[in-house]
Structure formats: structure tokens, C-alpha cells
Design a protein that fits this description.
The chain has about 650 residues and is α+β, with helices and mostly antiparallel strands. Helix content is about 55%, strand content about 15%.
């Protein structure tokens, strides 16, 4: 229990209401179930949602309760698992009459239900996190390897001055560790700040409005210690090369690559009809195969990330539109509840439906009755939504089976079926106020609600013929102003409360925005890896660039040559990264849907079409070209005099 607003009850005539319901202002007077008038003095939250309001003990009798709720806390190992809790509960309730126990709920099941939404985000966040770590390791290894190659003469001087091989290795490790620690601290702080809105969005609606949802301190500790260690390990392998390098060889080493490396490829490309800057550029990656492999891997991971994010975004966009019934429902009209101080509709159920159909712009109207029912053989209640009217136009997406077509049929979400061991084709029996009605499960919806069913009005009238609709879903004609229609509804009957149905799904927005942001970050990091590679290559080949310019190569041709060298890697990276991204999508999307208790139809996961793949194939070229452009232009501005002066 958490009190979110106001105060707790102090005596008769007061009530604290659940914040999960429709909130009313503090001081509102309500009447519950024909009992006395009660003043709302506070709003509270209960994760179990086993109660909707709380009063003082001496007020309970006036509300004429028909059941009581007992809360047990079991010590030690008795509360560790579902099985042990069931055993402890059976022992605690052994002396009760067999028919007196109506329902029970374990804190473990509540914990799983509360964490279901958060669990859906774990697979894709974990995937992006692994991709980010791998790209970071590749870049660190590339940086240190380039620094060792570019600093051969410096290594020789250090050893000539008396530095031991281990001390030389330490120089390079410290060189990369200093900025690594700075980046780690900065990234940890930024990650903690960026996580707050995501955590609040994930846990929204379960009573955490004033709860400080955050990251455990151990996570910060592991990050601050683990990331520098990862940087050192990534830098250790190329730094060991400096350990083994003899001083004489290091001092005498030039800055250009060793003779013969990549020459065979260069000679082969020279015989083609390609423009000379292009053929030279295509041969450059073969001069440093190790560095090229690291750069290519970074580009592949960047394309993998973009491909994965594209698949996730496409599926979640389709899911969000289906859940929000985009294009099928524009306004939802709620019926006023007198017990909450709201005016009741002026007309009956059928007349209200006819009124909504008669207002300008209305095309289809579906009446809904949300009713809590019991299932024969199960103790807990479930919410069932019964449709009347144009239910076939709601645009429900069925993952398995079919939509409602006649009486005695229900559609259930996968979490409901899994929880009770049911399948499409099985029969269930409703019970309410002693009346029963049987129905066949004809379809599995894609939603993740574990205690919700959908059925038609004929099924409802079989055991509750007097029930009325408590909301209406309205589809408007194209171009109709939803606000104007809702204003007309309020003017026609103050007892009706119309609201515009949002076209955005919160979960879809969170996943799409998060994956997009992470994709931009990882693609940028991959481009920075290309940037560093080109920078090292151009510095090592200053003499070659000066020679080419002295032979008449223009700055534009130099830029084309350098960008082409990386664009070729980008093209190969695109071809390798797309299958990897599709494979990652095939692993992550099922893990997300299983964790959330959602079942998606094949149409939502069939996202890999030829136009999409063609655009993704260009992603690697774009990443590589953007990373190479700045150092390529710097190389183009290099003058012959500068090269000769440095030599």
C-alpha cells in the first residue's frame, strides 16, 4: 500500500480510492453499493489490485460486505516458490469449510504481472548493450593498434632511453585508459539520467507515481570498474606488439607500410577500366588487413544494429496501430456513474446507441459491456468485454484462430490461455450471480492482458439479459473532426463522457524511440571507428599522398580515393550485417513477445521486403562514407611542401 495523495482515513464517512481507477478530486462525495455517503480523502495504490477502496474498520459494517480478505506473510523458505506458498496457504486454511475460500493470490504472481511490461524491454536493450560493448572493444583495439604502428619510432626511442618492454606496454595502456575512464564516468552519468524517463514509462500505471524508480548502486559500481577493465583488455593485445618490437628496428622504421603489402591487389586493380582514384582506393584496405578487419567488423555491427532497429520499429508500429484500433475507432464514449457523482445518461442503452449513430460523422458504433465474471473451475475473476453492434469493424488482430462470428464464442489473449492451460478450440464456462453460460475459444488475440476475455452480446444475454453497455466505441467518417463530434455528444446528453482515442501506443513508442536512439548512437560510434582508421591510414601514407599530388592528382581525386577505400568496406559490411540483423530480430522479437505475454500474427513479423533490404544494403556505405569524409578532405588539403618538410 502506498498513499499517493491526500491522507489516510481517520473515521466513518471517509474513503481512500485506488489510483488505478478514474481519479476524482479530493473532497468528492460518493455512494458505494447503496451504502452511506463517503468523502474521498486520499488516493492510494495497491499492486495486487485486490481492492478499489479503503475505509475505517467501523465503517465496514454499513457497506454490508459479502466476503472478507485475509493477508498472510509466511516466514523464510515457505515464501520462496509458488509451490511452497501453496503448501503454506493450504496449512493456514485447512480448517476452513471447502466452499469458503473464493480466491487466492501469491505475491510472486503479482511480481510477475507487474514485471511483465519491463521484461519485454530486456531482450532488445540487452542486444543493443552487447552490440555497443563489442563496437567499443573493436574501436579501442583499432586505436591502440594504430597508435603502435604510427609510433614505431617513438617506441624505439623509449626503449633506447632505458624503458623496459613492460614499461612501454604500460605507456600505451595508460594512454588509452585515461580517456577510457573519462568516457566511462561520463557514459555512466548520462546512462543513469537517460534511464529515468524509460523506467518511469515502463512502470507507469502500477502505482509508482511518487516512487523513486531507479538503478541499483551495484550497477554503477560494475560499470565504473568493468568498463575500464574491458578497455585495458581490448588494448592489451595490440600493446603487446610494442613489447616485442626491437629498439633498432623501431627506430629505423618508416611511416609507410612495408613494401609488397597489398601490391598484388593494387596491380590487379590498375589493369581495370575503373578511374584511377577509385582503383587506388579499392586497394588501400589490403595494405593493413588487420586494421581493415576491425573496421569492417565495426561497420557490420553498425548495419546489424540498423537492421534490427528497422525490424523492431516496423513490427511495433503495426502492433501499436492494431492495439489502438487506428482507423477503426476514433472516439470512446463512457457512461456516467452516479456513485462517483457523475450524471447518468438521460436515455436508455438502446436509445443512447441510436443517438450516437444519428450524430453527424458517425459511421459505426459498437456498444461494450465490461463485466467481471468467474470461470467455472477457477477461483479468480476475469474481465470480459461483450460487444454489440458493429463489432466486426473494430479491426481486432487475431494471432491464431478467428474473430467472433456468433453466440457462444470468446477470444482470449495468450497470457490468459497459458496461465490456465487452455488452447483455441477449448470451452470455458462463465458464472455470475449463480447463472452459467458456456463458450468456445475461437481465437487468440495478440494482447498481453492475462485476465481479459472478449465475447459478443448474445453470449452475455444467455446469463445476464439485463446488463447494459457502459461504453461505446465510435468510428467516424474520414475528415470528421473528432473534437466536434465529442462536443455534440456532450451537448446531446451530459451523462455521456466522450474521449478521443489516442493513435499512439505507449509500449510501441517507448521501444521505437529507444531503439532509434540506440541505433543512432551505435551507428555514430561505428562511423567514428571508420574515421579513426582513415585518419591513421592517411597519416601513414603522407609520402604516398604527396607523391600522387606531385604527379597531378587533384584534391577531389584524393577525397574520392580515400572515401572509396571505406565505401567498399561499407558495401561488404552491408551485405554481412543484414543477415546478422535479421537473425538478431528472429531471436529478440520472440523473446520480447514471450516476456510480455503477447502473440503477434505473421503479418506483423513479415517485415523484410525487397525495398527495405535495398535501403539497408546502403546503410554500410553511408556509415563508412560519413566516417571517412572528414579525414579524406583533410588529406586532400595536404600540400606537397608539408609532406617534404615532415620527411
Amino acid at each position: 500500500m502506498r498513499l499517493l495523495a491526500g491522507r489516510w482515513v481517520t473515521g466513518p464517512g471517509e474513503i481512500v480510492l485506488s489510483a488505478q481507477g478514474a481519479e476524482r478530486e479530493l473532497g468528492t462525495v460518493i455512494r458505494a453499493n447503496g451504502g452511506p455517503e463517503l468523502t474521498v480523502v486520499g488516493w492510494a495504490s495497491s499492486l495486487s489490485r485486490s481492492a478499489q477502496g479503503w475505509v475505517s474498520p467501523d465503517q465496514i459494517g454499513a457497506l454490508h460486505p459479502t466476503a472478507a480478505q485475509m493477508l498472510y506473510r509466511f516466514e523464510g523458505s515457505a515464501s520462496a516458490t509458488d509451490g511452497r506458498i501453496e503448501q503454506a496457504m493450504a496449512s493456514a486454511t485447512a480448517d476452513l469449510p471447502s466452499s469458503s475460500l473464493l480466491a487466492s493470490q501469491s505475491y510472486l504472481s503479482i511480481k510477475r504481472d507487474v514485471g511483465r511490461a519491463a521484461s519485454a524491454y530486456v531482450p532488445f536493450l540487452l542486444a543493443f548493450g552487447i552490440l555497443g560493448l563489442v563496437v567499443a572493444v573493436l574501436i579501442v583495439a583499432n586505436v591502440v593498434s594504430g597508435a603502435v604502428v604510427a609510433g614505431l619510432r617513438h617506441i624505439g626511442v623509449l626503449k633506447a632511453l632505458g624503458f623496459t618492454p613492460n614499461q612501454v606496454v604500460s605507456v600505451y595502456l595508460v594512454m588509452v585508459l585515461v580517456p577510457g575512464v573519462g568516457g566511462c564516468v561520463t557514459g555512466t552519468v548520462l546512462g543513469g539520467v537517460a534511464a529515468q524517463p524509460l523506467l518511469k514509462s515502463v512502470f507507469m500505471g502500477i502505482g509508482t507515481q511518487d516512487l523513486a524508480v531507479g538503478i541499483s548502486p551495484w550497477v554503477y559500481g560494475v560499470t565504473l570498474l568493468g568498463m575500464p577493465a574491458l578497455v585495458v583488455l581490448a588494448a592489451l593485445v595490440p600493446a603487446v606488439r610494442a613489447h616485442r618490437l626491437p629498439a633498432a628496428r623501431a627506430i629505423s622504421a618508416g611511416s609507410a607500410p612495408r613494401a609488397g603489402r597489398g601490391q598484388r591487389v593494387q596491380r590487379g586493380l590498375a589493369g581495370t577500366r575503373l578511374p584511377r582514384p577509385v582503383s587506388l582506393g579499392l586497394g588501400l584496405p589490403f595494405a593493413r588487413p588487420g586494421r581493415t578487419a576491425l573496421t569492417l567488423t565495426a561497420v557490420v555491427l553498425g548495419v546489424t544494429t540498423v537492421t534490427l532497429a528497422t525490424g523492431l520499429s516496423s513490427t511495433m508500429s503495426a502492433y501499436g496501430e492494431a492495439v489502438q484500433r487506428v482507423g477503426h475507432v476514433h472516439a470512446v464514449v463512457h457512461v456516467g456513474k452516479p456513485r462517483f457523482g457523475e450524471p447518468a445518461p438521460k436515455q436508455g442503452d438502446a436509445e443512447t446507441e441510436a443517438l450516437l449513430r444519428s450524430l453527424p460523422g458517425a459511421v459505426h458504433v459498437t456498444a461494450d459491456a465490461w463485466i467481471e465474471v468467474n470461470l467455472a473451475g477457477y477461483t479468480e475473476t476475469v474481465g470480459c468485454q461483450f460487444f454489440r453492434g458493429d463489432a466486426d469493424t473494430l479491426g481486432e488482430t487475431i494471432a491464431k484462430g478467428r474473430w467472433l462470428e456468433g453466440p457462444g464464442e470468446v477470444v482470449a489473449p495468450p497470457a490468459f490461455l497459458k496461465k490456465r492451460g487452455l488452447e483455441v478450440g477449448d470451452r470455458v464456462t462463465f458464472t455470475m450471480d449463480g447463472e452459467k453460460a458456456s463458450a468456445t475459444i475461437v481465437g487468440e488475440s495478440m494482447e498481453g492482458m492475462p485476465d481479459r476475455l472478449q465475447s459478443n452480446w448474445e453470449t452475455l444475454t444467455a446469463f445476464a439479459p439485463d446488463r447494459k453497455a457502459n461504453q461505446y466505441e465510435v468510428q467516424l467518417a474520414p475528415g470528421t473532426d473528432v473534437g466536434a463530434y465529442n462536443a455534440a455528444v456532450r451537448a446531446a446528453d451530459p451523462g455521456l463522457k466522450p474521449t478521443a482515442l489516442s493513435e499512439t501506443n505507449r509500449d510501441a513508442v517507448i521501444i521505437i524511440s529507444s531503439s532509434s536512439a540506440l541505433t543512432v548512437l551505435l551507428a555514430t560510434v561505428a562511423a567514428l571507428g571508420v574515421f579513426h582508421t582513415v585518419l591513421l591510414n592517411t597519416r601513414e601514407r603522407r609520402r604516398d599522398l604527396g607523391t600522387l599530388k606531385s604527379l597531378g592528382m587533384t584534391p577531389r581525386q584524393v577525397t574520392v580515393m580515400v572515401v572509396t577505400s571505406m565505401a567498399a568496406l561499407g558495401a561488404v559490411g552491408g551485405l554481412l550485417g543484414i543477415p546478422a540483423g535479421i537473425g538478431a530480430y528472429g531471436l529478440i522479437m520472440p523473446a520480447m513477445t514471450d516476456a510480455a505475454g503477447v502473440s503477434l500474427p505473421a503479418s506483423m513479423t513479415d517485415v523484410w521486403h525487397a525495398p527495405v533490404l535495398a535501403l539497408l544494403a546502403l546503410t554500410g556505405i553511408v556509415i563508412a562514407a560519413l566516417g571517412a569524409l572528414v579525414p579524406a578532405r583533410a588529406a586532400a588539403r595536404l600540400t606537397i611542401a608539408q609532406v617534404l618538410h615532415n620527411e
